[in-house]
Amino acid sequence: METADLTKVQNFKYSESQKIFDKASDFLPIHGTDYVELYVGNAKQAAYFYKTAFGFQDLAYKGLETGCKDRTSYVLKQGKIRLVLTTPFDPDGEISEHLQKHGDGVKVIALWVDDAYDAFHQTVSRGAKPYLHPETESDEHGLIKRSGIHTYGDTVHLFIERKNYHGIFLPGFEPLQTEYQPGVTGLKYIDHMVGNVELGEMNLWADFYARTMGFANLITFDDKDISTAYTALMSKVMSNGNGFVKFPINEPAMGIKKSQVQEYLDFYRGPGCQHIAVATDDIVFTISEMRKRGVEFLYVPGSYYDTVLDRVGIIEEDLNELKKWGIMVDRDEEGYLLQIFTKPVEDRPTLFFEIIQRKGAKSFGKGNFQALFESIEAEQARRGTL
């Protein structure tokens, strides 16, 4: 891309994606992701992993020592990301049933709102299934209001209203401080979270987010966009009005072999959150740190870098550094992005993470889909699930 063209792109003030954001309804204002809760088999060990490998920091704790008799939860934080890791004590309760069926995985995607009671009314009145009826909890630090609805599979959204709360996290939690505190890796916030649903259900759930939560369809990918000779998927990216919350919804597409989405559905035993994309301002630093700490990433063939600049044009980063760490690049009309994907962080090939740095781009790396899919297919072949 010529320098003049690049400047034109960077100076483009009113993007197509912004027009789509403007179409999203404002009946449910959402300020961002409040926290993500994973149900895990051993929260203490999971907390150690996410601190060591991803650089999350201690924040809060709830368990036997705080008077909670049915579960333990560790809350970790990095940047604006809050990760809650919860393990049950009751072998027959809802959390244990979730673990038995799905393994470790995302249960709660909590959203920060001004009015949790109204959020419940707005969504349920439009057809959402209630999960948590509006409630208020308080302690010496103030009060929290929250409510919740069901989404795809066993995943739920909680609406969190915390404008009158000044505690460390939520009532019932105490500050968590341990001697073991590895340094951060530069993660800033959740960029998007991807849900995998069954064949034929993508449009159903895209409509659910539009109808019940006022989201708009930011972009659609079909099996011509995301496919190889063997596998394919389709995806619709749904966004709230301010663009702070984006949920791509994937479904498998027919192919010669089993797609990554179908593999996920088989091992997760149904729909769920496939990956969490977290943003950084310095992806080279972030990935170099995470690799040192043992995080495994998908392999990107060296030949990918032979032609990438022909496709994306001028970038600020040293291409040799990107190649060294396996970081991919893509461009849209507003800028470019850098991204990389971990291998699954569970023994089941289910949940994984994407690390992304945006240099103006608001897209999702369409130009990298071919290389990404081929890398995933290679992992599936190693697992014998392709």
Overall pLDDT: 88
Measured by DSSP, the beta-strand proportion falls in 25-35%
Largest sheet: 9 strands, mixed
Percent helix among the residues? 25-40%
The succession of helices and strands, N to C, reads: HHEHEEEHEHEEEEEHEEEHEHHHEEEH
Number of strands: 17
Descriptive overview:
The chain has 386 residues and is of the alpha+beta class. 28% of the residues lie in helices and 33% in strands. It has 11 helices and 17 strands. The strands form 2 sheets. Strands 6-7-8-5-1-4-3-2-9 form a 9-stranded mixed sheet. Strands 11-12-13-10-14-17-16-15 form an 8-stranded mixed sheet. Strand 12 and strand 13 (246-253) form a beta hairpin. The longest helix is centred in the C-terminal third of the chain and has 15 residues, at 369-383. It is globular and about 60 Å long. The model is unreliable at 1-15 (pLDDT under 50).
Give the key terms.
single chain, disordered N terminus, alpha+beta, globular
Task: Please summarize what this structure is.
The chain has eleven helices and 17 strands. It is α+β, with helices and mostly antiparallel strands.
